[in-house]
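quick one
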Amino acid sequence: MKPRDLLYIARDVLRDMLRFDAAADAVLSRWFRAKPQLGKTDRQILADTVYQVLRHLRLFQTLAAADDGIGGPMEVRLAILGWSGNAPSLHAALTPEQLEWRKRVLAQDAMALPEAVRWSLPEWLATALQAHYGAEYSALAQSLLRPAPLDLRVNVQKTRREAVLDVFARLDLPARATPYSPWGIRLEGKPALQDLTVFREGWVEVQDEGSQLLPLLLAPRRGEMVVDFCAGAGGKTLALGAMMRGTGRLYAFDVADYRLAKLKPRLQRSGLSNVYPVAIAHERDERVKRLAGKVDRVLVDAPCSGLGTLRRNPDMKWRQKPEDVAELTTKQTNILQAAATLLKPGGRLVYATCSILPEENGAIVDAFLASHPEFERVPADSVLRQQGVEGDDLVTQGDLQLLPNRHATDGFYAAVLQRRAPSARPADVASDVAIAN
Ligand SMILES: C[S@@+](CC[C@H](N)C(=O)[O-])C[C@H]1O[C@@H](n2cnc3c(N)ncnc32)[C@H](O)[C@@H]1O
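structure w/ S-adenosylmethionine:
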């Protein structure tokens, strides 16, 4: 497709996306389906351009409003500023006037603008992050603007990380072991995974390194009864199933059928036979109640604002509002309480989110512990150490706290909780041996 035509498609996609009534990836997929004539490179440029605009939206809108020297609707000017093709395609896409305008606008000194504009954060979020992260706010805000790398998790049910790294080396695809997760591989580029045998055969799955640490905190053992309470498309379910070496029973609950449906092909590739997807109506569903007191370990990967994943989903910062976060915290509280009833005495629960807001994280766990004296917090650093994960900087006030500026992962939070055994010994994490290998 001619770059100039692509620029105007980007304008139309942005017009749709900036209504924020659907997730950006869903809007983009709809456009890809509507425009089958777009080639692979066209799609890449289109995706990179509109995501660049979503990341820097507040800055671009401010800059483009201050200098409207080329006229036309705001969406065209945003697409011009966000254009992410190479130099020849840029010159082919823009008129000389547009090129000149782009150069002039992007050369403006943004330092004079307020930080929240420079880092393209809505005011409420900038205020919340600044209040919680203090001196780290600036580094965090800037790290959220950078695109995320492509991380993979090696399926230990089928292979070892070294074997996959060897395959990538032979294919000349730059890749390296991730620093924290024992199963993680970080790729430099973004190869089409569907074309790779290692992917088709279930040796690897796409999963951010931070997300890989949550199953490690739950540390399920062979033969146990485990529930992934908010399993979605099963990113963490698959890792848990592999840690259990395909033994025991792993229930994958979720209220969204369509998300569980996406787990099915992944399960097939994974070679796991211990996973039981169950669609529940809500957290108090009869199918949940039937397992009360019978489960060894429960993962609650709670529905959240997703604000820790802005590198991948920059639209979330524009779609989420403070009142949505307030609604989510009620949901999180209810889900945590219901999930906790499943545990046997001595059982472990991990409460996790991909949010960086304290009200969805520590505040939920603190309130739960205050009203549930039969539970106690287990220090996440000791659990991680038992699992062979080094990194004291991963844990803040006893809980896992991952941030893109510190750990080059998405933002994740997780607390490890244990239901006290009747003998009421304090959390004896030392007796909790590392996963059977
Ligand atoms: C953060 S996502 C889970 C992502 C998933 N664990 C993964 O690794 O791919 C949260 C999930 O919670 C589900 N959910 C929302 N309300 C729920 C409820 N009341 N009970 C169980 N799951 C719920 C959503 O459908 C969504 O799939």
